[in-house]
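Side project, low priority. Logging it here so it doesn't get lost.
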Amino acid sequence: MASDEESIKPEASPASEFQSGRRDKRTYQEFASERLGMPLSKDIEAIRTVVLAYQDAMNASSTDRVMALYAPDGVIMPQHSQARIGADAVREAYEDTFSAIAFQVRFNVEEIVPTNADWAFARTTSFGRTKTKAGGGGPEANQELIVFQKIGGEWKISRFCFCTTNPAQ
């Protein structure tokens, strides 16, 4: 008879199975596509497109364009700040940011990992320059972890967490 712990053990995710040694010559996307029973290349490209649209919205200081990429219950978790939860709070965070800082950044997608048909995460890095409205500015470099949710057939940013990779001054 199985113990209670064994009977409620969740099924391993494709990512954990792939990383636990069941590797062969397939890429993670091929492995996950087979494991999840769905083609992933279109989803991966769609998520990559969202990341690049986010980059362009940041560089344009466009709160409306950023918000179009977020899920209605989205969350942003900036370094050294409290999480901003929900569309109104996320909008306010970007409005505050864009009123003080202009960005010229580029995002690199390091990996995109679908976890099922409706959820995925991406690990990105970004670099470039900022210019403050007060006249300062300088180099900008971050690493980001972005959780995506498919809503109505479109990938949206559900959770966005970032921290600087610039050395402490």
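Brief comment: The beta strands are 70-77, 84-85, 101-114, 119-132, 137-151, 154-164.
Revisit when time allows.
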